[in-house]
Design goal:
Layout lengths: L6 E6 L12 H21 L4 E8 L2 E2 L4 H4 L2 H9 L7 E2 H12 L10 E4 L23
Parallel strand pairs: 1-2, 2-5, 3-4
């Protein structure tokens, strides 16, 4: 890429790289590191015409997660944690990846694009809480 003075890197990180995820400490650390690597690549390689961006998928149903999502309780619990009300698919990540790899994003580098159904914005959606008046919200 340096030799041709152009290129594009699209890293697939995770919303778990933005927020801690119980039981997946190493996964969270690796995905957080990938987000930082993306920003470093963007900064260091921009002078060579190379762009680097990352996508942070939320809950995505793939062949690798199918056994987990086959458990109705797990699926429903995760679905409820997504403001859009559903678990995503690989196709939900393909569009953002194509955009970031295309010339339509030619002035985009060092960005972290969420493709998570609002999961990061609604991070505390499933956390029970109290209204300031004292009554429960959930």
């Amino acid at each position: 890429m340096i030799a041709q003075k152009s290129g594009c890197i699209v890293n697939i990180a995770s919303v778990a790289g933005l927020f801690p995820y119980n039981g997946a400490g190493a996964y969270c650390v690796v995905k957080a590191g990938l987000i930082m690597l993306t920003k470093l690549q963007a900064m260091e390689w921009a002078p060579y015409g190379i762009r680097a961006n990352a996508i942070t998928p939320g809950y995505i149903r793939t062949p690798g997660t199918e056994a987990m999502y086959a458990d109705a309780e797990i699926y429903e619990g995760r679905r409820k944690g997504v403001p859009m009300g559903r678990v995503g698919t690989g196709e939900d990540i393909a569009g953002p990846a194509i955009f970031l790899a295309s010339d339509d994003s030619r002035y985009t580098t060092g960005s972290v694009l969420g493709a998570d159904g609002g999961q990061a914005a609604g991070y505390f959606l499933s956390v029970p809480e109290r209204r300031f008046s004292g009554g429960r919200i959930d």
